[in-house]
Amino acid sequence: MSRVATPVAHIMDNPELRQDIVTGDWVVLAAGRASRPNFLDGAKEKRKRSSLEDCPFEQPQPEKASIIYYTDRDRKEWGLQIVPNKYPVLEHGEVCSVINRYGPYTYATAVGQHDVVITRNHDNNFAMLPPGEANALFRAFKERYQQMAQDSCVNYFFAFHNWGPGAGASIYHPHYQILGLPVVPPDVERSLEGSRNYFEKHRACVHCEMIAWERQSKYRVAFENEWAVAFAPYASRFPFEMKIFPKKHLPNFEETDDGDMRCVVELLQKTLSAMTRELNDPDYNFYIHTAPMRNKNLYEHYHWHIEILPKISVIASVEIGTGIEINTVHPGKAAEMLRERVNARGERLTPDL
């Protein structure tokens, strides 16, 4: 983003980035998203299946799609499509975000990209997708990353899934979202800084150190395969929080080869399947944390991963007011509960650890 100082007042009709004057964190104001379906009452309701007739995601939009995958050679049956979000957090523009001043405050135009990724089946969330479709989804993420990387206004790629109204999903039909952000998000920035500091002190990747320790101790590991591992973080912020890492040191999501990615996808499906059975089918979020798009040589210390947060607890005053999360489930017990589950055929989801 370029920097231009302007003392004039500004209007909030379009999405806008604002920077907290104390913490330096960026916040997005996107008033247009209040028009989403069930914006005010969705989070108060338990997940309910919508009818196919009422679902806005049942029909393909090839004229709008940046990516569309078909399931047949005649290209009559679509399986996945990526289209612009109808209620975007960021808006695509001819000019990149410009930082401005308003009195003591800093703001910027929220220029970027915001996509919806729609899978075909009306009911199959990520845990329920056939493995081929799950892997196709992540291939589409990588393909869309490469497209967004051509946009000089985009600096960070953020892909995520909200499942259920308690996790922020306003439409029942399973879908995923991608943000092409002009700034590195605050939570990612803190993660990058912590990884950088650890590397400078110990000359080692902090995430690789965690992976090695968790695989050795086994207590917090839920699932493991040849090239990936899923475990509950030692300092888990929320009950049943899980992280999935490729075992290989890979800073950049988009540079992950197909073999490593298949292993990550397999564990993501296993973990979410176990949560569905063990935790009474909770709403959840999962998202990808990866290194920024630009100046990649500065982030060789980082290790991309997926974070999963099931919505089974309520954040209250202590968490909001202090920033200290209160977790009521021991991480080791959480991992143990998930890995001990068996699937419908009586087979273990993972070998005994």
Folded structure, characterized:
This protein has 353 residues and is of the alpha+beta class. It has two domains: 2-39 and 47-182, HIT family, subunit A (2-Layer Sandwich), CATH 3.30.428.10; 187-339, HIT-like (HIT family, subunit A, 2-Layer Sandwich), CATH 3.30.428. It is 24% helix and 22% strand. It has six helices and 15 strands. The chain has helices at 131-148, 186-202, 206-217, 258-278, 317-322, 331-339, and strands spanning 2-3, 16-19, 26-29, 67-70, 78-84, 98-102, 105-109, 113-119, 156-163, 175-181, 221-224, 228-231, 242-246, 284-289, 305-310. Strands 4-5-8-10-9-14-15-13-12-11 form a ten-stranded antiparallel beta sheet, sandwiched between helices. Strands 1-6-7-2-3 form a five-stranded mixed beta sheet, with no helix packed on it. A hairpin with a 3-residue loop joins strand 11 and strand 12 (228-231). Helix 1 (131-148) packs across helix 4. It is globular, with a radius of gyration of 21 Å. The N and C termini lie far apart (48 Å). Residues 2-11, 39-44 and 342-353 have low confidence and may be disordered.
